[in-house]
Design goal:
Layout: E1 2-6, H1 10-22, E2 27-31, E3 36-38, H2 44-47, E4 57-59, H3 60-66, E5 69-72, E6 78-80, E7 85-87, E8 92-94, E9 97-100, E10 104-106, H4 114-117, H5 124-139, E11 144-148, H6 152-165, E12 170-174, H7 189-201, E13 205-207, E14 212-215, E15 219-222, E16 228-229, E17 232-235, E18 239-241, H8 244-247, E19 252-253, E20 256-258, E21 271-273, E22 278-279, E23 281-282, E24 285-286, H9 291-309, E25 327-333, E26 336-341, E27 344-348, H10 349-361
This protein binds flavin-adenine dinucleotide.
Flavin-adenine dinucleotide (FAD) binds near residues 8, 102, 153 and 291.
Length: about 375
């Protein structure tokens, strides 16, 4: 059986491990333009230098060798679902089963100037570039930092900026909706009010209901209200599907691949998809996009590929981190975090230690 895995992040790695465990003779090919898997959960700590790039990335070639897989260090450019072939610039790779786990990229919602004038920490390269620019800024005596997006990444980034640069920076956190961490406001509003209070105590200015309309190289304009002057802008608002998805003729919901309850692409028996790049609605529960959900989906894809090959009935996926009941660790600086799942919440140092354990546990497999 030939398995091709496109995208070797949280979900793809689990697919490879799971299929290898269940089928010693499977021919597995991994495809990814990155030479190292990136653990994005820890990118905010690149800014405060609490982690190094080596600690939070893992070498995909040696991972492939360990699992007797072939690794093609290129981007997949297209898939011919009829002849069952994945194309990269240099190779054409046939498959019996395909797993599409290509994740997501930063979205700028088409806001003029947003991409051009901001830094994104959604990739390691972006986080390192932002860190360098920040160092230059601080040494030049400039201090006005704007962070657009008060979701998990924006909050964690602000916590790390305060930890590293303290009173040297004037930080403004900008959110289009009415709450900090809006994704948690229905399930557990205490998460939002607690984080808002903590950040205000750290002297972070918070602008809510502030929808960005356009960005110039030193000013952010809003739909209503006065513009804001800034020296450096971080963009942490929103994600969109990885560009490969635009080339794939498969059922989609707002650009994300639609999968069935077995995590097969809707209407296909031999193509599975999981992680950030999919839209998963099962029994009225919609998966949220985070590392835990991507890992669980990767494991289920592996199990169902093995079951398909052995002619067994497929297992049904049960979303755990859902839009209705979000689960997350959210660090807010000072070695503290919130751990929340639905209405449950613990906060402080223990939650941060748990977060670090969970974040780094995934990387053990690359040692
Ligand atoms: C800054 C930041 C902080 C975050 N913090 C947290 C957190 O604290 N906790 C948490 O649970 N989640 C967090 N997340 C979300 C989490 O990182 C994602 O949900 C998770 O990475 C999704 O896993 P994935 O496997 O779907 O995608 P990814 O891990 O992004 O992997 C996708 C892979 O596909 C590859 N790829 C893309 N296009 C192609 C192509 N054409 N061909 C081949 N390969 C391709 C990419 O190079 C990448 O290696 C954070 C995300 C960001 C950006």
């Amino acid at each position: 059986m030939k398995l091709v895995v496109i995208g070797c992040g949280f979900a793809g790695i689990e697919v490879v491990e799971g299929v290898r465990k269940g089928m010693k003779d499977a021919e597995i090919t991994m495809i990814d333009p990155r030479a190292r898997m990136q653990n994005q959960s820890l990118f905010p700590e690149i800014i405060s230098e609490k982690v190094t790039p080596d600690e939070i990335t893992g070498d995909l070639s040696s991972f492939a060798r360990k699992h007797d897989a072939k690794f093609i260090n290129e981007a997949a450019l297209s898939v011919d679902f009829k002849s069952k072939v994945v194309k990269t610039e240099r190779e054409e790779v046939p498959y019996d089963f395909l797993a599409i786990t290509v994740g997501a990229v930063q979205s700028y919602f088409g806001i003029p100037g947003a991409e051009e004038h901001s830094y994104s920490i959604n990739t390691l390269e972006g986080a390192l570039e932002a860190k360098e620019a920040l160092e230059r800024l601080v040494s030049s005596g400039k201090d006005r930092i704007a962070v657009v997006g008060a979701g998990l990444t924006g909050v964690e980034l602000v916590g790390e900026l305060v930890d590293k640069y303290g009173g040297k920076l004037k930080i403004t956190l900008i959110e289009a909706l009415s709450k900090v961490l809006p994704a948690f406001s229905e399930a557990n509003p205490k998460v939002c009010t607690y984080i808002e209070r903590v950040l205000r105590e750290k002297r972070v200015d918070i602008m809510l209901n502030a929808a960005v309309e356009r960005v110039e190289d030193d000013k952010i304009y809003f739909k209503g209200g006065e513009p804001l002057d800034y020296d450096m802008l971080f963009w942490t608002a929103g994600i969109r599907p990885a560009p490969l998805l635009e080339t794939l003729d498969v059922p989609k919901e707002r650009g994300w691949i639609k999968v069935d309850e077995n995590l097969r692409v809707e209407g296909m028996n031999d193509v599975f998809a999981g992680g950030d790049c999919v839209f998963t609605m099962i029994d009225g529960r919609c998966s949220g996009k985070n590392a835990e959900e991507a890992e669980r989906q990767g494991r289920m894809i592996a199990e169902n590929i093995v079951r398909s090959e052995k002619g067994k009935p497929l297992a049904k996926y049960r979303p755990k981190n859902t839009l209705e009941r979000p689960r997350a660790f959210i660090s807010y600086g000072g070695g503290k975090a919130i751990a929340t799942s639905g209405r449950f919440m613990i906060k402080g140092r223990i939650a941060y230690m748990l977060k670090k354990y969970v974040d780094l546990r995934f990387m053990k497999r690359f040692e």
